[in-house]
Amino acid sequence: MRPGLRDGSLAVLKYVAVLGIGLALFMLLAPMIGYQTYGDRPEAGWVGWFPGIDWAAFPSYLEFVAEFLLILVLPWAAVLFIGAVLLVRYLERQQFPRPLVAIAGATVAMLTTGYALLGAAWTVSLGLAPLVVGMGLGAYVGGCQLPKRVA
Q1: Is 54 left (phi over 0), alpha (psi -120 to 50) or beta?
Q2: 129-147 residue pLDDT tens
Q3: Which pTM does this prediction carry?
Q4: Where are the chain's structural domains?
Q5: How far apart are CA 129 and CA 133, in angstroms?
Q6: How remote is the C-alpha of 110 from its chain's centroid?
Q7: In whole angstroms, what is the distance from residue 98 CA to residue 105 CA?
Q8: Measured CA distances, 6 to 20, 76, 146 (Å)
Q9: H-helix or E-strand containing 43?
């Protein structure tokens, strides 16, 4: 495999892993303290205090989160993240300063992650908090993990 293709593939896999694990942990742990991450009745948001979800409902909620992330969010987010990878590698090849490359990568990754989450969020009435967490994770990978060249 060519080095550029291997590097891009590893960057996308890293992004999918960070986004998938981070969002899954947030969506699984938030209901335990009373924050419902999705729903229209009752609406997403604070619904009570610990424990916000009963343990009998946890397996079905775990299945929902896995299906939501693996089917609706991660494939589209990975495809959109390729644009951030291409932009960052182009800027690095053109010898742009690393802070500028990191800012550009974080911005593009954050916006594409938000777009992918918004595209999937309407199906489950996703709340604002998972969207913000997902965009933050995208910005982290795009700005901190994606650029390779040191200053």
Answers
A1: beta
A2: 899 999 999 999 999 999 9
A3: 0.88
A4: 3-145
A5: 6
A6: 8
A7: 10
A8: 21, 20, 13
A9: strand 43-46
